[in-house]
């Protein structure tokens, strides 16, 4: 039961971190995702040429990294439960934020400045729409109140006529 709680905690933190990281990446992306991916590809190729790693050597490095990830996962299982929850929460959130941030940067449809300007204009438009709707609702309410008052006065006159 406690293991399921820890896993749920980790998943929730991972998801929350991914949302935060992705949102921040979209808002502050220096370039579009396509441009960022192209730059990353060229830098990766440059590093590969400079270090002399072939793709096979890179695959071996990736295998070593995968083994280290598995060892890290085994280490997490050995941590005491009370401390594990806090660590899982932090690790999940930070991991999610990193993943979300990377994905956001790599797939940003626009530079962050453009995205912020777009969101600002949408917010201003929505505010204006809300003000127009509020004014319309106020006018409708005033008209209905006026009609109700007139109807009540008419009923009062009719009742007074019948009693006189």
Structural commentary:
This protein has 164 residues and is mainly alpha-helical. It has two domains: 1-109, no CATH class; 113-164. Helix content is 90%, strand content 0%. The protein has five helices and no strands. It has helices spanning 2-28, 33-51, 55-78, 81-106, 112-163. The longest helix has 52 residues, at 112-163.
Please give a quick description of this structure.
By secondary structure, the protein is mainly alpha-helical. It is built from 5 helices and no strands.
What order do the helices and strands come in, and which of them pair?
Layout lengths: L1 H27 L4 H19 L3 H24 L2 H26 L5 H52 L1
Helix pairs in contact: 1-4, 1-5
Keywords:
5 helices, 164 residues, mainly alpha
């Amino acid at each position: 039961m406690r293991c399921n709680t820890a896993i749920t905690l980790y998943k929730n933190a991972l998801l929350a971190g991914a949302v935060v990281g992705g949102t921040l990446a979209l808002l502050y992306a220096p370039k579009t995702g396509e441009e960022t991916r192209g730059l990353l590809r060229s830098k990766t190729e440059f590093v590969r040429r400079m270090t002399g790693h072939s793709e096979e050597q890179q695959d071996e490095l990736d295998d070593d990294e995968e083994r280290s990830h598995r060892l890290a996962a085994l280490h997490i299982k050995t941590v005491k439960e009370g401390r594990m929850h806090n660590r899982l929460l932090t690790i999940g959130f930070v991991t999610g934020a990193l993943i979300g941030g990377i994905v956001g940067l790599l797939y940003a449809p626009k530079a962050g400045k453009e995205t912020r300007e777009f969101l600002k204009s949408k917010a201003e438009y929505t505010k204006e729409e809300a003000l127009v709707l509020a004014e319309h609702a106020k006018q409708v309410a005033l008209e209905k109140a006026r009609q109700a008052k007139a109807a009540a006065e008419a009923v009062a006159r009719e009742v007074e006529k019948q009693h006189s």
